[in-house]
């Protein structure tokens, strides 16, 4: 089994790391949150006092960080790449700007390190169940080396292309996710405002042409799906501010490629309004409350 350093134990990183421990890997973890680290050490991982300490002797380094600035900060500004032994495989599972992924990958290559960007889809439920989808950018050989480890955390692994391609594909996916969640929430709010039961309407949509991932697995209306964040006060899950970040990345990519994304920009504005209203820390499906507040 590989010796793995895992840095970043948030809502997604912690369950991903737990699955690696359960698979028998020797895991060393680091996070700024002592509680997050304790969850992993209770499961059998070793705690490191810093990111540099975590990567000592590691065969594979995995990071799951919030944004581009954190990834560049750790690998480049704090020079974590300089602390990683030559020949080590580096896997960044964060969702960041493609240019940032390429920048870090080039710096890794210059130090004799293999690196892939491998952002994930599937939410916290998929992270806990080990059924995530990994969307990989980087050399095919590095992906094949990473595959046995990724398979302990995910069910589907796609090779999107060269460094940064995984991020492009993930950004496209999350832009569509933001659009469809906002649309699903709008439709449910309209139905409820006109006297429909949200569960009945959701069942109808789920068996009709409007069905989508939200209506099938992640309904935004409280009480419709017992295990969805909407039925748990919108706690956990994928935060509004994280969705807003990803929609911002989509906007940046659209500008650089001169692409039109009118629905993506509309979704970004809606999530910005929702975040500015104090809901940035809630699950992104709470966007339904934006429509409810407009109705009240």
TrEMBL record:
<feature type="domain" description="6-phosphogluconate dehydrogenase NADP-binding">
    <location>
        <begin position="3"/>
        <end position="161"/>
    </location>
</feature>
<dbReference type="InterPro" id="IPR011548">
    <property type="entry name" value="HIBADH"/>
</dbReference>
<dbReference type="Pfam" id="PF03446">
    <property type="entry name" value="NAD_binding_2"/>
</dbReference>
<dbReference type="GO" id="GO:0006574">
    <property type="term" value="P:L-valine catabolic process"/>
</dbReference>
<dbReference type="InterPro" id="IPR013328">
    <property type="entry name" value="6PGD_dom2"/>
</dbReference>
<dbReference type="InterPro" id="IPR008927">
    <property type="entry name" value="6-PGluconate_DH-like_C_sf"/>
</dbReference>
<protein>
    <recommendedName>
        <fullName>3-hydroxyisobutyrate dehydrogenase</fullName>
        <ecNumber>1.1.1.31</ecNumber>
    </recommendedName>
</protein>
<dbReference type="GO" id="GO:0050661">
    <property type="term" value="F:NADP binding"/>
</dbReference>
<keyword id="KW-0560">Oxidoreductase</keyword>
<dbReference type="Pfam" id="PF14833">
    <property type="entry name" value="NAD_binding_11"/>
</dbReference>
<dbReference type="InterPro" id="IPR015815">
    <property type="entry name" value="HIBADH-related"/>
</dbReference>
<dbReference type="InterPro" id="IPR002204">
    <property type="entry name" value="3-OH-isobutyrate_DH-rel_CS"/>
</dbReference>
<comment type="pathway">
    <text>Amino-acid degradation; L-valine degradation.</text>
</comment>
<dbReference type="InterPro" id="IPR036291">
    <property type="entry name" value="NAD(P)-bd_dom_sf"/>
</dbReference>
<keyword id="KW-0101">Branched-chain amino acid catabolism</keyword>
<keyword id="KW-0520">NAD</keyword>
<feature type="active site">
    <location>
        <position position="170"/>
    </location>
</feature>
<comment type="similarity">
    <text>Belongs to the HIBADH-related family.</text>
</comment>
<feature type="domain" description="3-hydroxyisobutyrate dehydrogenase-like NAD-binding">
    <location>
        <begin position="164"/>
        <end position="291"/>
    </location>
</feature>
<dbReference type="GO" id="GO:0051287">
    <property type="term" value="F:NAD binding"/>
</dbReference>
<dbReference type="InterPro" id="IPR029154">
    <property type="entry name" value="HIBADH-like_NADP-bd"/>
</dbReference>
<dbReference type="GO" id="GO:0008442">
    <property type="term" value="F:3-hydroxyisobutyrate dehydrogenase activity"/>
</dbReference>
<dbReference type="InterPro" id="IPR006115">
    <property type="entry name" value="6PGDH_NADP-bd"/>
</dbReference>
């Amino acid at each position: 089994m590989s010796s793995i350093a895992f840095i970043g134990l948030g809502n997604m990183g912690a369950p991903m790391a737990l699955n690696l421990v359960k698979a028998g890997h020797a895991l060393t973890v680091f996070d700024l949150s002592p509680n997050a680290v304790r969850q992993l050490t209770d499961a059998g991982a070793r705690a490191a006092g810093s990111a540099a300490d975590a990567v000592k002797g590691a065969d594979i380094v995995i990071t799951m960080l919030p944004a581009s600035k954190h990834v560049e900060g750790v690998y480049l500004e704090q020079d974590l790449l300089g602390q990683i032994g030559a020949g080590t495989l580096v896997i960044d599972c964060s969702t960041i700007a493609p240019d940032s992924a390429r920048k870090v990958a080039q710096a890794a290559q210059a130090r004799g390190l293999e690196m892939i960007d491998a952002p994930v889809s599937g939410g916290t439920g998929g992270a806990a169940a080990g059924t995530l989808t990994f969307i990989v950018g980087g050399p095919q050989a590095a992906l094949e080396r990473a595959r046995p480890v990724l398979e302990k955390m995910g069910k589907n692994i796609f090779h999107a292309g060269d460094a940064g391609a995984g991020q492009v594909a993930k950004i496209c996916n999350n832009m569509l996710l933001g659009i469809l969640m906002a649309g699903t929430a709008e439709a449910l709010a309209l139905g409820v405002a006109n006297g429909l039961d949200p569960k009945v309407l959701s069942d109808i949509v789920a068996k009709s042409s409007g069905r989508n991932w939200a209506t099938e697995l992640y309904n935004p209306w409280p009480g419709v799906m017992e295990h969805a964040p909407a039925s748990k006060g919108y706690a956990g899950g994928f935060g509004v501010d994280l969705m807003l970040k990803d929609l911002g990345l989509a906007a940046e990519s659209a500008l650089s490629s001169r692409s039109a994304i009118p629905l993506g920009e509309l979704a970004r504005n809606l999530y910005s309004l929702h975040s500015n209203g104090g809901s940035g820390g809630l699950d992104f499906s709470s966007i339904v409350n934006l429509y409810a507040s407009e109705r009240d």
